[in-house]
């Protein structure tokens, strides 16, 4: 795994922003009806506890439990079983000798508000306290042009919950296109670096970096990654997850 690709302090947004502007707002990061923020917790499905990453046998040693919590970019929108980001990260961890189980808690259409609403439920329905949470939301907030303050508050609430439980996090960030105005874009884009610093959570600044705009790595909707695109994202995100697990 190439850790050199993950250097948030030297990350350059300039080459990515036009792609976000031209592609991200063409369609939702869900392709399905968004989950209602006031939806009953009882109606929210628990995390998927399937045997993902079946092609990579688990190494020896105590199993590390990771919760991958996000929207359709985590859920594996329109992909086959075993092709989600959770699957790809688990496979890479096991290939690196890390006995890890990555639980897919991605829900297509989730805003940060919807994610916040089901976050505690998802944590409580795991077989045990997770060793790490991979957290990535925000794309649907941009599509709905939700107030930056609300997005920040929702992300903060989830990170506060993890802090209260003593669970570390790795963040995958989102970006706003400039056609929403420079003031909105600057404020929105700052959410993840600021929260990363405040909560000492490693950050991959833009989850679709190196994927969006590349037709070979995207579904026809030009918003969601195909299986190859997910593999590319996992190549870059997994080193952060592996390092965070090794620090525990």
Residue stretches low in confidence (pLDDT < 50, at least 5 long) are 1-19, 25-44
Largest sheet, in brief, is:
5 strands, parallel
Q: Tell me what portion of residues adopts beta-strand conformation.
A: 5-15%
Write the CATH architecture name: 3-Layer(aba) Sandwich
**Radius of gyration from the alpha-carbon trace, in angstroms:** 17 Å
What is the chain-wise order of helices and strands?
Answer: HEHHEHEHHEHHEH
Biggest sheet: strands side by side, in what order? 2-1-3-4-5
The CATH class is identified as Alpha Beta
CATH superfamily: SGNH hydrolase
| CATH fold-level label | Rossmann fold
- Mean of all residue-level pLDDT scores: 84
Tally of individual domains = 1
Question: If helices are DSSP runs of H or I spanning 4 or more residues, what is the number of helices?
Answer: 9
**Quantity of strands, as a count:** 5
What's this model, at a glance?
The chain is an alpha/beta fold. It has helices at residues 17-23, 72-75, 85-95, 112-124, 139-143, 148-165, 182-189, 191-198, 227-246, and strands at residues 64-70, 100-106, 132-136, 169-172, 203-204.
